[in-house]
């Protein structure tokens, strides 16, 4: 019995010793793994001698921002930013630290350009006090590959992407070319309108329109499906040295666009997650149907032509378009000119859901007069039908000037008209729309569009 | 017995092996990733020399969310602002205290952890925290990215925070005397934001924030007296009513005794040291001393006379107002036409709200020299100097008053002098503008200009009571 007890005790002894060989759930002790992970991020950051292209998203408006950062061994970081012209051309050095706070964290722990977005003061970044643009200066380390690091803001949870810069990119950033490429990118979308990329998805072809807003640092894209419904997306972007990086990928029609690259002043491509390039093209007219934008309560409600007020010059039809209406228009201008009156604006406006106005503004001496007439209208399937011609809508001038208005009245009553975009042969022409006679498609009144 | 011994040994072994197991789970702190920084920059060396070594103060300038309100967005301090901020502390805080109280004082009482942040720590009501003090140990300073070492006011604002927070630190060591909180007793109100100095001054508070709690009040009293300086403080007292004044002086006395009795620091010596720093190093400017301002003197009945004598040479040297000269000349012409020649004017301020206008004139025929008096009421705003004259009725009964009512003197007065004085709003000040502060004659001339029309004014030598 006692011997048994001894055996049992001896057995206990071994059991206890077996515990010694406990395997870790992970391969090492926690403090070792913490230290390793910190070291992994630190050496990764410092290892890129040419620094990193860095992009962050902010929560306040979804705006994106681009940076170039060079991390040094002595816990200093030098950066440029696309925040403004000065930050794009003048570098600023501050400190960073890598600490383990629930996860390995990169902290920009003294003020630098990345602190501008995080700053609570609205006076610094235009955001709302006390949260600024709702951004972070503390980021946790998520993952990395050979030439990229992904971190996540600790408070606002936005991802920070770091892409390894090449030697030539580094010298461009340090040589002050960042601002030039930002301006070149802005200029591309300032001078080119109706931009789109052609994409195919699920057996259909699409023109995906895009608008880059340099003020809000967001890009919005939109495409119309065969069933006329729209798909769209909005994401922030930060400027890169050769284009823009989307701070979240634009996911649309099963394609993930990750960046835009400007190859030269007139060549731009979008790049998807597979590295495929999609050239940016310009449509001669807006991608959307006019009927979706034109109406008394829509984006535009007025088609107009204009001259200038000082010195007074007569209205002219926009160039680069051939329309039989120009003879009618010139006759109208010259009949007024014959009585020493100068038409400076001619406008067709959808006043409300039933009434359309034709307005003629003209100068007599130094006085500006308005002559207008109203119609009832219907606008169905792109066709505008004018009825119930009523001269002298807001005053008697239309009646007084009826001799000079002359055959234009007949033209107005010769509908129905098809409302549609007008394309101009002049590059960079503003958006034009017109009223085409149904029976004479070459005879159309046209001009710029606006909301009045 | 022997077997029991064996059991015991075996049991001991089994325990000892168990102990071994626990060792394996111990964390090897040598491998633990500590939150330490490389601290070998010039700045770090300077901090070591000026804070760690003499005071055992650890300065945390690298952003750490866990030393402040964890849920707030607060900007990190700019590297370029760290040294100016700390230099300000050396010049305006540790220096003066050490000079007055000795090194031992700072080694014991200076907070040992200073944490610096770039932006303010914003409250939900739009106000912001500029500093905080915890357990007499951790002192946080905020909004340092907006510090401008070349701007005395900017330094003053932040140095006031330092002294304010340090007073909390001392209070966390030696409590505030009980008598203090009863002075403004029921007037403490936590919602201080949006209140003005004018609202809290009659209650005996030195700033709106000090009205929030007696602990803040105590710290604000010290910070304002020491950092804003005697001129500012006296101005503040001058604008207080009797209750406000009495309360402020009572609080001041307690703050003085608290510092002297507990820490052997003289409040006024501390004030002098800090003011010296602010003025010699940071070129801070004191506000204009209200008590020597003309409008203050006038509104308190401390001005005796102002004399306008058109023949005096100072009008040639320092200029005169064409607009006023027209009024005077019209008056002289009108009265001369009636047989009397006005020579000069004397405004005698007989009290804080009454003034007698005397016209010295002569009779060219007889050569007699005479005086005509007219009584006025006036009000002057001590701060802005805005002054209104109103004709006092009934007119006085002296011979001079009767002279003023004669048919030769009254028409000119009624047509020119009376409307000029009573139809305009004046600003009382030291005039002319060409005698600036620094000129030995400054404050020996004073007068009135029409509000908003700086070219329409009259002035003359001033005498005081």
Structure characteristics:
heterodimer; A: 452 residues; alpha+beta; Lipocalin; 9-stranded antiparallel sheet; B: 465 residues; Collagenase (Catalytic Domain); 2 domains; 4-stranded mixed sheet; 15 helices; 44% helix
The radius of gyration over CA of chain A amounts to 33 Å
Task: Using the coordinates above, name the CATH class of the largest domain in chain B.
Answer: Alpha Beta
Question: What would you call the structural class of chain A?
Answer: alpha+beta
The CATH class of the largest domain in chain A turns out to be Mainly Beta
Q: Count every helix of chain A, treating DSSP H or I runs of 4 or more residues as helices.
A: 12
Into which percentage range does the β-strand content of chain A fall? Answer: 35-45%
Please outline the helices and strands.
The complex is a heterodimer of chains A (452) and B (465).
Chain A: H1 2-19, H2 30-47, E1 52-57, E2 64-71, E3 76-81, H3 85-89, E4 92-95, E5 97-101, E6 103-107, H4 113-118, H5 122-125, E7 138-145, E8 148-153, E9 159-164, H6 167-174, H7 177-191, E10 195-201, E11 204-213, E12 218-224, E13 230-240, E14 243-252, E15 255-264, E16 267-272, E17 277-279, E18 281-282, H8 290-293, E19 302-309, E20 312-316, H9 325-337, E21 341-350, E22 355-364, E23 367-380, E24 383-390, H10 397-400, H11 402-405, H12 407-412, E25 417-422, E26 432-437, E27 444-450
Antiparallel strand pairs in A: 1-2, 1-9, 2-3, 3-4, 5-6, 6-7, 7-8, 8-9, 10-11, 10-18, 11-12, 12-13, 13-14, 14-15, 15-16, 16-17, 19-20, 19-21, 19-27, 21-22, 22-23, 23-24, 24-25, 25-26, 26-27
Chain B: H1 2-25, H2 42-55, E1 58-60, H3 79-101, H4 103-109, E2 113-116, E3 121-122, E4 128-129, E5 131-134, E6 138-141, H5 152-171, H6 178-183, H7 197-200, H8 214-238, H9 242-263, H10 267-280, H11 294-299, E7 303-308, H12 314-318, H13 322-337, E8 341-349, E9 354-362, E10 369-380, E11 386-391, H14 399-404, H15 410-423, E12 426-429, E13 445-450, E14 453-464
Parallel strand pairs in B: 1-2, 2-6
Antiparallel strand pairs in B: 3-4, 5-6, 7-8, 7-14, 8-9, 9-10, 10-11, 11-12, 12-13, 13-14
Helix pairs in contact in B: 2-3, 3-4, 3-5, 3-10, 5-8, 8-9, 8-10, 13-15
